[in-house]
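User: Can you help me understand a structure? I only have the sequence.
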Amino acid sequence: MNAAQQATDITLTSKIASAVSLFRSEFPDAKVDLKPWAEDIDTQELVDPDSIDFSFHFPGWSRRWQSRSVLVQIRFNDDRQQVESTRNFIGLEIAGFDYRGKQWRLSTVSDWQFEGDIQPQPEIADKLKQFCRQIFELFSL
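Assistant: Let's start by predicting it. Here is the structure, written out as tokens:
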């Protein structure tokens, strides 16, 4: 779900802002989009209500990134079985896109390995994994 819609209280809003700042501290050319999903009915049916989604766009296609845009999804497990519904942080999904669509994907929910025929260069991959570790610290508090 769009990060802008998930910012419902001061704690979560602060964590979203911190996540954006962490990314931009490593990649200052990236411009953030807190509403990466369109507002149309078809798109909204596909959006996961148990995630905080935002994207970053670069000034042009990046050879180092092998993409132009990066979608970040902070995933939660919504435990509706309990009397008091809780959202537990479970990991991140990050994907790189260019004009052809999704080029690569990194999931910390599974094995922390990049997937895709085209992948970011090793120094970018290492920085992304560091960003993921920082998000784990932020949302595990």
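Now, to help you interpret it: Residues 3-140 form one domain. The longest helix spans residues 122-139. Let me know which part you'd like to focus on.
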